[in-house]
Amino acid sequence: MVLAVRAGGISIGYIDEEEEYIVWAVRGVDLAIEEGDAFCLVGESGSGKTTFASAIAGILPPHAVTRGKLYIFDRLAIDESTWNFNGLRGRVVSYIPQNPGTSLSPFLTVEDHFYYVLRDTLRYDREKSRKAAMEALLKVGLDRGVLEDYPHELSGGMQQRVLIAIALASNAKIIVADEPTSAIDANLRASVLQLLGRLNREYRVTLLLVTHDLASTSIVCNRLAVMLAGKIVETGRTISVLRNPQHPYTKMLLDCVPLLGVKKPLKPLPGEPIQVVEDKAICPFRERCPRAIDKCVEEPPLKPVGDEENHYVKCWRLTGVESG
To answer: What is the DSSP letter of 111?
Structure first.
């Protein structure tokens, strides 16, 4: 088994210059993603999922503070406060941002975008870049004529496919897709997700999908992790977590999602995500949880869920019964 990503107790925070304290977005995450896996990171806004994804892609801002270790294909990329993404960023790991419209320059054609990326990552000249671009565009269902277009001449879905094609052309082994459907029409979301899933299966590209929508995970990912206040509170095979969610937070995320053909009232998540200044060992959902007990002032360990394979939850209560 080859691990594409391995995080060992990784914590990531941001320094508040005025108040001179650190806000911790990711706290002590241990996670392994196998090569060729399609892995989904789920959580509401402010849960830390985008920060963790940015760390894998090597695009953390300079004022970020890190602890722990992060490996990309056995290469030590983060070692406590030392970062080393030379040769990884753009070449091994490619990042697809939330909003394709703001990620593509309005002054460059699609061909220019390919050229400047491939020139810097693979040292391609213009001719070799154009050939790679045409091949990549065909893989994502776009005609080579798109190369002459400017981003504003393309739909949101086409812009997103261009970004995916650029990632493929760079021969990246890992694609980090951060909310790739958030800025496109609802009727195009499924097609973009299906495209990512097909590329993962056909080309064995390791996929990390970041989303707040649990429903979309079943289209693409075979494994998922649920993040809350910078911690992973439930993880396992996608089908196992969706059919048998154990953490109250996971269940509430599912209650927020409309399901096709299922009539049910949608329930918003209560309260707001906490801002973690001091990394205290308590359950991060305690103040918002309807099932909280006195023991929740202590942080629970990540425990296996019955006989479910590789399904773990960080909660003192399983299936409504206190356990410890």
So the answer is: H
**Domain residue ranges of the chain, discontinuous segments joined by +:** 3-36+47-86+226-322
**pTM of the predicted structure, to 2 decimals:** 0.90
Q: Is 55 helix (H, G, I), strand (E, B) or coil?
A: helix
**Structural tokens at position 137:** 């565009």
SS3 241: helix
- Render pLDDT for 63-107 as a digit per residue (tens, 0 to 9): 899 999 999 998 999 999 999 999 899 899 999 988 887 889 999
CATH code: domain 3-36+47-86+226-322 is 3.40.50.300
Q: How far is Cα 241 from Cα 7, in angstroms, rounded to an integer?
A: 21
Nearest to 148 by CA among 133, 161, 138: 133
DSSP 289-319: -TT--GGGGSPPP-EE-TT-TT-EE--SEET
Per the CB < 8 A criterion, the answer to whether 208 and 5 are in contact is yes
The residue among 208, 278, 293 whose CA lies nearest residue 248 is: 293
